[in-house]
Amino acid sequence: MVMTLIQVLKYRRNAYRRLGIKQLQEILQSAPGNAAFEINLILKKIAIGKFGRERAANLSGADWFSFLSSTSTKMAEPGKHDQVFFISALYGNHILNSQELKLLAEFADQWIKTHDAG
């Protein structure tokens, strides 16, 4: 009985993660020209909801990447190449090709699933 209650509470507590993953999958299926913006929006909403507006809302570029990397201890250690790609994908002036979109989505998916919600 206690185990079931704990499982139900954990399931409810992680509803925002499931919603984020669902939204990410919808973006990947439709692959809009603004997919990077949409993925970033999902990450921002989750980060602000879990870590607060003061801590996450104004971050961008390298600071935003560092925040995401540091709030998930279970993600692979990012390299400089990862940071450069992330910043280019989010803030570059080009539409992501399918491989770039897949890489950005994998990063977002991993963060959504593994960030430390405190």
Q: Which characteristics define this entry?
A:
118 residues; mainly alpha; 7 helices; globular
Number of helices: 7
Report the C-alpha radius of gyration, rounded. Answer: 15 Å
Q: What would you call the shape?
A: globular
Q: End-to-end span in angstroms?
A: 26 Å
Strand-residue proportion = under 5%
Count of distinct structural domains: 1
Give the oligomer, counting copies of the same chain as homo and different chains as hetero. single chain
Question: What's the total number of strands?
Answer: 0
* Helix percentage range: over 70%
- Write down the secondary-structure element order: HHHHHHH
Largest sheet, if any?
A: none
List low-pLDDT spans: none
Label the structural class.
mainly alpha
Whole-number mean pLDDT: 88
Written overview of the protein:
The protein has 118 residues and is mostly helical. It has one domain. 75% of the residues lie in helices and 0% in strands. The chain has helices spanning 2-13, 15-30, 35-51, 53-56, 61-70, 80-91, 98-114. α3 (35-51) packs parallel to α7 (98-114) and α5 (61-70) packs across α6. The radius of gyration is 15 Å and the shape is globular. The two termini are 26 Å apart.
Describe the structure concisely for a colleague.
It contains seven helices and no strands.
